[in-house]
Write a structure and sequence with these properties.
The protein has helices spanning 59-74, 88-99, and strands spanning 4-17, 30-43, 77-78, 107-114, 120-124. By secondary structure, it is of the alpha+beta class. Strands 3-1-2-4-5 form a five-stranded mixed sheet. It is elongated.
C-alpha cells in the first residue's frame, strides 16, 4: 500500500458583503480579510520523468489553480454579486465544488475559510464525494 501525504496552502483575499436577512450587525455592508486554506492528498508521485516527481502536486500548480478559479474572482469583490447568500458556509461549498476536479491527481480534502480571526467554516471531503 502506498503512503498518502497531505499538503496545503494558505491564500488571502479581501471582500465585502452583507447578509440582508440576518438579524445582527452583519446585515449591513462590511468587509473581511479572508484566510483560505486548501488541503489536498495523494501518493507522492514517483515517475522520474514527471515534473511533479517526489510531490503530491506542485505547490505552484496548486497556487495557480486556486488563484485562477477562486482568488481572482473573489478578491476585492462585493460577494453579494456572486452568491445569493454570501455566508462563509456557502462560500466553502462553492470553493470545494469548483476545485474538486481541477487538482487531479491529488484529491481535495479540506477547504477552510476564515472570515475573522475567530470564525471559520470548513468543508471536508468524504470518500464518496471524491
Amino acid at each position: 500500500m502506498e503512503d498518502i501525504v497531505k499538503i496545503g496552502r494558505i491564500f488571502w483575499f479581501e471582500a465585502a458583503h452583507d447578509l440582508p436577512n440576518h438579524e445582527g450587525k452583519c446585515r449591513l455592508v462590511h468587509g473581511h480579510s479572508y484566510k483560505l486554506i486548501i488541503e489536498v492528498e495523494g501518493p507522492v508521485q514517483s515517475e522520474i520523468l514527471n515534473p511533479e516527481a517526489g510531490m503530491v502536486m506542485d505547490y505552484g500548480r496548486l497556487k495557480g489553480v486556486v488563484n485562477d478559479l477562486v482568488i481572482d474572482r473573489l478578491d476585492h469583490s462585493y460577494l453579494n454579486d456572486i452568491f445569493p447568500n454570501p455566508t462563509a458556509e456557502n462560500m466553502v461549498i462553492y470553493i470545494a465544488t469548483i476545485l474538486k476536479h481541477q487538482l487531479l491527481p491529488a484529491k481535495l480534502t479540506k477547504v477552510e475559510l476564515w472570515e475573522t480571526r475567530n470564525s471559520y467554516a470548513k468543508w471536508e471531503a468524504k470518500d464518496e464525494n471524491i
